[in-house]
Design brief:
This protein is of the alpha/beta class. It has a 6-stranded antiparallel beta sheet, sandwiched between helices. Strands 5-6-10-8-9 form a 5-stranded antiparallel beta sheet. A 4-stranded mixed beta sheet has the order 1-2-4-3, with helices on one face. Helix 1 packs antiparallel against helix 3 (48-61), helix 30 (693-701) crosses helix 40 and helix 34 crosses helix 36. The longest helix is centred in the middle third of the chain and has 21 residues, at 444-464. It is globular and about 90 Å long.
């Protein structure tokens, strides 16, 4: 990269927000698509002025610019070999307006977080892409996203009220301003005149006008939205709506105001099995007539891919050849409205020929599992692919009346080209089908096969069934070469003129709407070398990133995998210098700042735990001396705990930000009639108060607990395991497990552990029946206790261990018992304290807790509740309010 360009980028923003090292650039080289491009630099822009300054630098040096928020793009829109401008971490703010009827947001806000803000007002975003928990508003607008329920009427285009944009020239306009059109006329006169000329031209072409009107009655995101030229008269309104779905190639959208839609929270769902895809597709019309909001198609291959997931009907892997299913959901604003829709859907079902009787259920958990399985199909298929292949997902749309024939033709196309693993699924209600296939990219013959397949696909969609090559994912690099095939020369000429009017220097994402060359869609394909059994199933979808504690500090789970794969490519290519370059930068961002909390596995549809890989790599990097010293410490663990308690006592005494030193392990108890064995974690022996709340509560509730002897030497092993010191962890855990097995009568009694992270460690690595103390307290203690006073207000932090153990409802139940008002953080996530990492790498905790700290400060909560002592330390440091173990508070209010 040119030193002058780098210097100017740093001047346009700030030196610490221009990422230009080898590893930093590689980390952003992949999105969720099949393309891999390493940017020259990554710039963490902060506001509109910086974006304008970056664009000025890009024009001066003739370097392309691509905007990226979540990087969940499936079609290669979020990668570039130019300047990548990240608009996520500094662009996360939103406000609900007009009682929930409108939402104002910047592009870095997650779709799921926006819906959480709207939920109290019984509204939601119109677009509902399946990736809502991972994608941001920026991507939703850039791709004109829709989803299973939104259709055309509630997509981004049709729910847009206003937006603020920055043109490549630096012109910034808020279209809500009363004089916005006049601003555009004065500040960008050629663009203003050109938009009027394009509108006049389209209105004067009856054939093209009719084609545009017809194609936008169904889902279509191929090319630019020419319908804006027909739907609006003022240039400012035309431009605002043309920016929707333009994939960041015309301007940068820095803020948008969207009209919301009613939240139909009452639902009833059915999973219906059909003997064929053709039969399933023919059932779409009856459900459309019944005004059923969701009708999702899954072909036989899709059903086999999700057969192992919890909650799906049994026997999916053994269905007859050619079978298919529809996931149907009726929705209503209340029970009465749902009843009307449900009855209509049931009546439609009665007229269908099904493989097995199918009924509707209102059970929320069962519905959630079905929808989770459908939404997780993309990574689930990717996780089963052959090593070394990449995953392609495309979405096409057909007129609904042609959907059945088109689906059958698609299946035949896959067979003809040898894609036996391909799956078809999608939003059948709108004629929108997705298909997934795995593609080897290292073999030129395989790439040629893929090229021939694409040519035949385009013929099938466009010429045979008059459909759209892109329905809701944006055009992207994969379909840019075929925009003219779908639209024709006249329409594409207008699109190209629109591009030149907005971006005359061509700096914004070249190759995304219009191809750089006829074979551009076959270039820069992403190879997927094996790097570790823990993560090789990863398809780089990015679902893990919103829950990662280090996401705004160093790397995310996806980025760690991307870097390791790039290293493997360089090893295979014999690039020793390139390998050394990555290795020199890897340890701190890749290993040291990973919390290894496993939350990435909870967000990943195929449950990839990148933290498991990190802990293994940490262990492999330890010297024999370090491993031996750790094992020696494990063999004398009581001494280590004593040292920790003494250090805490000294630190607390001299004013360090530490809690009081812990209590000694309780004396052994062989209580008659005990219903459980109690194991106080070593964290409670290092950091705690003078009273053990679990024992005090049990005594108060009249519940007998056994306590084993030898607790001074006992530990779950997590403090060693997290550092990659597996042998030391096994030593101390096996000794502890032997004591607990004996006192629990061979496991007859459950073992109650007083810290969520320790309970999780036992749960994952021990054969014992382990209960977190919070779950035990809710089930066995709370019903026997009398609440004598209540605290007025508290905020609940659900720790990563509690999330893994499914303790959210238990925590809420106890919190509601002890407090008059309880709030759960909308930004809840891992605090990054990670046992002792909050002491060794406090910047990790500071970064991980920043969104939660902002929420807590703005709401003014006086007290926080948690289920893990180290997490309480981290949250208290971040927020400035005390965070207490929830059972300590329960013990106080029941005295």
């Amino acid at each position: 990269m040119s030193p002058a360009l780098l210097q100017d980028l740093r001047g346009a923003t700030a030196p610490d927000r221009v990422l230009a090292s080898d590893l930093e650039r590689v980390a952003f080289a992949s999105d969720a698509s099949m393309y891999h491009l390493v940017p020259r630099a990554v710039v963490l822009a902060k506001d509109d002025a910086e974006v304008a300054a970056i664009l000025a630098v890009a024009r001066r040096y003739a370097v392309p610019v691509t905007f990226r928020a979540a990087g969940t793009s499936l079609s290669g829109q979020a990668v570039t070999d130019g300047i990548l401008v990240e608009v996520a971490r500094h662009w996360r703010s939103a406000t609900v307006e007009d009682g929930g009827r409108r939402l104002r947001s910047r592009p870095g806000m997650l779709g799921a977080h926006l819906n959480a803000l709207l939920a109290p007002h019984q509204t939601r975003l119109g677009p509902d892409p399946s990736s809502l928990a991972a994608c941001t508003l920026g991507g939703i607008l850039a791709n004109n996203s829709s989803g299973p329920c939104s259709g055309v009427e509630q997509n981004s285009y049709h729910t847009l009220e206003s937006l603020t944009f920055v043109l490549p020239s630096g012109v910034r306009i808020d279209t809500a301003d009363r004089d916005a059109d006049e601003q555009l006329r004065q500040r960008a006169p050629e663009l203003h005149r050109g938009l009027l000329a394009l509108r006049t031209e389209l209105l004067g072409s009856p054939t093209l006008r009719a084609r545009v009107e017809r194609k936008y009655r169904t889902k279509n995101t191929t090319g630019y939205g020419l319908n804006a030229l027909l739907d609006y008269e003022r240039p400012i309104d035309i431009l605002a709506h043309a920016l929707i779905g333009s994939e960041g190639t015309l301007a940068f959208i820095s803020e948008a105001v969207l009209r919301t839609v009613p939240l139909l929270a009452h639902t009833s769902s059915a999973f219906l099995l059909f003997p064929s895809v053709h039969g399933a597709c023919e059932a779409i019309v009856p459900f459309r007539e019944a005004e059923t909001q969701m009708v999702e198609l899954l072909d036989e291959a899709s059903l086999r891919a999700i057969a192992h997931l919890p909650g799906v009907p049994r026997g999916l892997a053994d269905l007859p050849r050619g079978s298919a299913a529809l996931l149907v959901q009726a929705q209503g604003a209340d029970a009465e409205a749902l009843g009307d829709r449900e009855r209509a859907a049931i009546e439609a079902t009665g007229r269908l020929s099904l493989l097995a009787p199918g009924g509707f259920t209102r059970d929320a958990r069962q519905q959630e599992r079905l929808i989770h399985a459908r939404k997780g199909l993309y990574p689930a298929v990717g996780g089963r692919r052959v090593d070394g292949t990449t995953l392609l997902l495309e979405d096409v749309a057909f007129p609904v009346e042609r959907l059945a024939a088109a689906a059958v033709d698609l299946q035949e196309l896959f067979r003809r080209h040898g894609y036996d693993d391909a799956v078809i699924f999608g939003h059948a209600k709108d004629g929108n089908l997705h298909f997934l296939l795995t593609q080897p990219v290292a073999d030129a013959a395989q790439v040629d096969r893929y090229a021939r397949f694409l040519d035949d696909l385009v013929d099938l969609v466009v010429h045979r069934h008059d459909g759209a090559l892109k329905a809701e994912h944006g055009t992207g690099r994969n379909m840019a070469a075929f925009v003219e095939t779908e639209w024709g020369g006249e329409a594409v000429a207008m699109m190209r003129r629109l591009k030149v009017l907005c971006d005359p220097d061509g700096v914004l994402s070249p190759g995304v709407i219009f191809p750089a060359s006829p074979r551009a869609h076959l270039e820069h394909l992403k190879s997927v070398p094996a790097v570790g059994v823990e993560v090789d199933r990863c398809v780089e979808c990015g679902y893990c990133e919103p829950v990662c504690p280090s996401r705004a500090l160093t790397l995310t789970p996806r980025q760690r995998i991307v870097v390791l794969r790039e290293r493997a490519r360089r090893v295979a290519a014999g690039d020793r210098a390139g390998v050394a370059s990555l290795d020199a930068e890897w340890t701190y961002p890749g290993l040291d700042t990973c919390a290894a909390d496993g939350l990435c596995a909870t967000a990943c549809p195929v449950e990839i735990d990148t933290g498991a890989l990190v802990t293994r790599l940490r262990g492999e990097g330890r010297s024999p001396f370090a491993r031996g010293a750790a094992t020696l410490g494990a063999e004398h663990y009581g001494a280590l705990v004593g040292l920790g308690r003494a250090a805490t006592r000294i630190g607390h005494a001299v004013g360090m930000d530490l809690p009081a030193a812990g209590r000694r392990a309780p004396a052994a108890r062989r209580a008659p009639g005990a219903i459980a064995v109690y194991f106080p974690s070593c964290m409670g022996r290092v950091f705690a108060g003078s009273t053990d709340p679990v024992l005090a509560l049990a005594e108060r509730a009249g519940v007998a607990l056994r306590v084993p002897d030898g607790l001074g030497e006992a530990c779950c092993g997590l403090s060693f395991d997290s550092k990659g010191l597996a042998e030391a962890g096994r030593v101390v855990r096996s000794r502890t497990e032997a004591r607990l097995t004996e006192v629990s009568e061979g496991g007859r009694l459950p073992v109650v552990v007083d810290g969520s992270s320790c309970a999780l460690a036992f749960h994952e690595k021990s054969s014992l029946h382990v209960l977190d103390s919070v779950a035990f307290a809710r089930a066995h203690l709370l019903p026997r206790l009398t609440i004598r006073r209540r605290i007025p207000d508290a905020v609940l932090h659900v720790t990563c261990g509690a999330i893994h153990l499914g303790l959210t409802d238990d925590l809420k139940a106890i919190a509601n018992a002890v407090a008059d008002r309880v709030s759960v953080l909308a930004t809840n996530g891992c605090c990054g304290f990670a046992g002792d990492r909050g002491f060794t790498h406090p910047e990790l905790t500071a970064s991980a807790t920043a969104p939660m700290a902002n929420e807590i400060r703005s709401a003014g909560y006086p007290l926080g509740l948690t289920s893990n002592l180290p997490c309480g330390i981290g949250m208290a440091r971040a927020t400035g309010i005390p965070f207490r173990h929830i059972l300590e508070v329960l013990e106080e209010v029941t005295r």
